[in-house]
């Protein structure tokens, strides 16, 4: 089929299942099937809760050896998976595959309602919440809910008072990175928002909108 050579007959048989689709090893709990018996054993730990692989640095445990190896790269800083186009490196092969969509333009995950497509499955899931109205992330203080975890984390700073984004010039700090970016324009003099009619420019988008009412006659 593909003429890939093998030393052992058993390895050839396992490989041929990629072409035939044969998956002879089935889980007795959920009936999911696998090409190799080792893959089935690893899967069964999901049901048993068995996590035999332990990180020697932080004692976190894993059900799969490959997951432990990927985790260990957090401690070692190793990023063994490199993009052949831009040389960006990753700790996980799965992250490299997702990254490669940036170069190929591939968007294999499509919304069944509006046909918008995405390069990552996680992006599709976030998008689908627009249609479903799902808001799975809830604040433990005020019960306000959000469609994205990042929005919840940002909201929680209202309660904690955390302001992790600090200006390197004057040390004023902000709860949101976007607020820091706007603030920095005070120091840099950047005015990225320009009026299309008279070309006057502003550092804040809100200031531009107010100005445009001079031309449109619109009242807020």
Describe, in plain words, how this protein is organized in 3D.
- The protein has 220 residues and is an alpha+beta fold.
- The chain is 44% helix and 13% strand.
- The chain contains 8 helices and 14 strands.
- It has helices at residues 9-20, 37-48, 65-76, 93-104, 121-132, 149-160, 177-188, 205-216; strands spanning 25-26, 33-34, 53-54, 61-62, 81-82, 89-90, 109-110, 117-118, 137-138, 145-146, 165-166, 173-174, 193-194, 201-202.
- A two-stranded antiparallel ribbon has the order 1-2. Strands 3-4 form a two-stranded antiparallel sheet.
- It starts with 8 loop residues before the first helix and ends with a helix.
Can you summarize this structure?
The chain is an alpha+beta fold.
Structural class: alpha+beta
Q: Beta fraction of the residues? A: 5-15%
Sheet with the most strands, sense and barrel status = 2 strands, antiparallel
Low-confidence stretches: none
Q: Percent range for helical residues?
A: 40-55%
Q: How would you describe the shape?
A: elongated
Tell me the distance between the termini: 69 Å
The count of helical stretches stands at 8
Oligomer: single chain
Name the helix and strand elements from N-terminus to C-terminus, one letter apiece: HEEHEEHEEHEEHEEHEEHEEH
Average pLDDT value?
89
Strand order of the largest sheet: 1-2
List the helices and strands and how they pair.
Elements: H1 9-20, E1 25-26, E2 33-34, H2 37-48, E3 53-54, E4 61-62, H3 65-76, E5 81-82, E6 89-90, H4 93-104, E7 109-110, E8 117-118, H5 121-132, E9 137-138, E10 145-146, H6 149-160, E11 165-166, E12 173-174, H7 177-188, E13 193-194, E14 201-202, H8 205-216
